[in-house]
């Protein structure tokens, strides 16, 4: 074999395949971020936490749809269980856990492993890189903020216990999408901002949990002490769920204090989301990257 080997050509050979450009690079990076966060194409151990978190969010939906299916047989009211907006009260803790590991897995790993420099040597710049990562995180979080409630809607519709009329169904469907995206937007921007400040995933995950829980505890304590009700705008854990109630035209079910005005809920969610996104953008503009 060695006697017949020949060197046919030497030197650099240019890439001759199709070039997708920036848009293709953004899509590919977002897709890879989704796969990495969900543990796809990785060892079984990297799949456990995402699977558990997603399972905890979907199990109540499956149970409630199952109860609706058996309502006639066991003389149970078909409307048994939470409404679409109330469903989040059963799974908000699981959503928090899921949020805490998604963004650190997406951002911190690239900086710690040196992959960020390789990304920026591609058609991506810092802005399009962050766009791709944000899209990835938003899509992943939408799995737990939109998916389970949508499953309940579809299940109840098939069983004849869904919204009245096609217009009612479309309205409920739109509210589910908008509410889920609202939760995903605030949680994604907050978790990305925290993850942009450290290259250690464990530190970022712990900080996300602490910020969300501590803000809820601090605001709750201040309200119990007679603080202004507008302090609820600083409760990052509950604020996006208040937005969901606003979207559904429902009153926030807190009984110990007056809920935020609808306009303030919307402004607070949009404002915090933009602020956290700005922190992430500023952090990456200042970050020194070796290509």
Q: What structural keywords apply?
A:
transmembrane helix; mainly alpha; 10 helices; globular; membrane; 291 residues
Question: What does this 3D model show about the protein?
Answer:
The protein is mainly α and 291 residues long. The chain has one domain. The chain has ten helices and no strands. Helix 7 (165-195) packs across helix 8 (201-224). The mean pLDDT is 88. It is a multi-pass membrane protein. Keywords: Membrane, Transmembrane, Transmembrane helix. GO terms for molecular function: ABC-type transporter activity.
Order of helices and strands: HHHHHHHHHH
Helix count? Answer: 10
| Portion in beta strands | under 5%
Largest sheet data: none
Rg over CA atoms: 23 Å
What's the layout of helices and strands?
Blueprint: H1 21-37, H2 44-69, H3 88-113, H4 115-120, H5 126-145, H6 147-158, H7 165-195, H8 201-224, H9 239-247, H10 262-286
In short:
This protein is an all-alpha fold.
């Amino acid at each position: 074999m060695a006697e017949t080997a020949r060197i046919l050509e030497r030197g650099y050979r240019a890439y001759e395949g199709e070039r997708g450009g920036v848009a293709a690079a953004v899509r590919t990076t977002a897709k890879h971020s989704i796969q990495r966060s969900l543990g796809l194409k990785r060892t079984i151990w990297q799949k456990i936490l995402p699977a558990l978190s997603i399972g905890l969010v979907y199990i109540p939906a499956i149970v409630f749809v199952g109860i609706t299916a058996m309502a006639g047989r066991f003389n149970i009211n078909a409307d048994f269980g939470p409404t679409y907006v109330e469903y989040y009260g059963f799974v908000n803790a699981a959503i928090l856990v899921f949020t805490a590991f998604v963004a650190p897995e997406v951002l911190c790993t690239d900086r710690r492993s040196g992959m960020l420099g390789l990304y920026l040597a591609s058609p991506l710049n810092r802005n399009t890189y962050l766009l791709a990562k944000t899209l990835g995180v938003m899509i992943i979080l939408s799995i737990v903020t939109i998916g389970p409630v949508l499953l309940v809607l579809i299940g109840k519709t098939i069983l004849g216990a869904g919204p009245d009329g096609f217009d009612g169904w479309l309205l409920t469907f739109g509210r589910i999408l908008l509410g889920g995206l609202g939760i995903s937007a605030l949680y994604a921007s907050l978790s990305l901002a925290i993850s942009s400040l450290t290259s250690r995933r464990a530190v970022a995950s712990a900080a996300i949990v602490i910020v969300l829980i501590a803000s809820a505890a601090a605001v709750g304590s201040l309200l119990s002490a007679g603080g202004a009700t507008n302090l609820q705008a600083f409760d990052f854990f509950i604020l996006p769920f208040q937005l969901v109630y606003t979207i559904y035209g429902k009153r926030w079910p807190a009984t110990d204090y007056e809920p935020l005005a609808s306009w303030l809920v919307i402004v607070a969610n949009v404002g915090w989301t933009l602020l956290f996104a700005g922190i992430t953008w500023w952090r990456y503009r200042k970050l020194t990257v070796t290509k």
